[in-house]
Design brief:
The protein has 232 residues and is mainly alpha-helical. It is 84% helix and 0% strand. Helix 2 runs antiparallel to helix 3 and helix 4 packs parallel to helix 6.
Length: 232
């Protein structure tokens, strides 16, 4: 087998793996949107669909990791290509975690159906989740285009997610102090808000990998967090 054939085989295999990552990202985007919709409308059937769909996301991560490991073992990629392969694995891991948070949101929907409603909270959480989904869409586009500037824009936008989380946390505290019936639903809603904020953190981790692939360097300094409360 000549060297040119080996190179073209590597390129084809890497393209296939990257296509799997983009497919995985699309499934995660759908999970975020469907989970937040099920929360807003208290649609238990849609929530169940989100929980079941998470299996496909997990399966893709396992396949991507296996394919990357095989590619490294068989093709011995150069430093630049190895950077791409390792970044793909990290991106897949972050996507899987975002999918888990969407699944957890869907799980809590079924619990909230039977609790005292908290005015405006579910709509606010859906808007927060929508912003995270748009960040994810943009960071996947940035990866496809190797657009470091778009990835940096996504990093900056995570600050808005942190602010939305902090505002919701203060609202939930107010609701709980005003009416004890709100304590249980607000605890569930708070964990959904925190999980959504963490989705944003994983999107920023993907953005950092995109910058690394595009430029060969990680961002100079980690983005400062503005979250003031971390549940156990």
């Amino acid at each position: 087998m000549n060297e040119q054939h080996i190179v073209s085989a590597f390129d084809r295999e890497l393209e296939t793996i990257q296509a799997q990552v983009i497919k995985m990202g699309g499934l995660v985007e759908a999970a975020i949107l469907d989970a937040s919709k099920s929360l807003k409308t208290l649609d238990e059937e849609l929530a169940e669909q989100v929980r079941n769909a998470d299996k496909a996301i997990d399966g893709l991560e396992e396949q991507i990791n296996a394919d990357c490991a095989q590619l490294i073992a068989l093709r011995a990629p150069t430093a630049v290509d190895l950077r791409v392969v390792l970044s793909v694995m990290k991106m897949a891991g972050n996507l899987e975690r975002i999918g888990d948070y969407a699944k957890n949101m869907a799980k809590r929907t079924s619990v909230l159906v039977h609790m005292t409603p908290v005015e405006g909270a579910r709509g606010a959480l859906r808007r927060m989740a929508r912003e995270v989904q748009l960040m994810l869409k943009d960071v996947l586009d940035a990866y496809i285009q190797r657009d470091a500037e778009l990835a940096r824009d996504v990093l900056e936008r995570d600050h808005e997610i942190d602010q939305m989380y902090n505002a919701l946390f203060r609202e939930f505290l107010t609701f709980m102090m005003e009416d004890p019936r709100h304590i249980s639903p607000c605890m569930h809603l708070h964990f959904i808000a925190k999980n959504t904020e963490r989705m944003g953190d994983h999107v920023t981790a993907i953005a950092e990998q995109v910058i690394y692939v595009a430029t060969g360097k990680m961002p100079d300094e980690p983005r400062p967090k503005v979250s003031h409360y971390e549940p156990e």
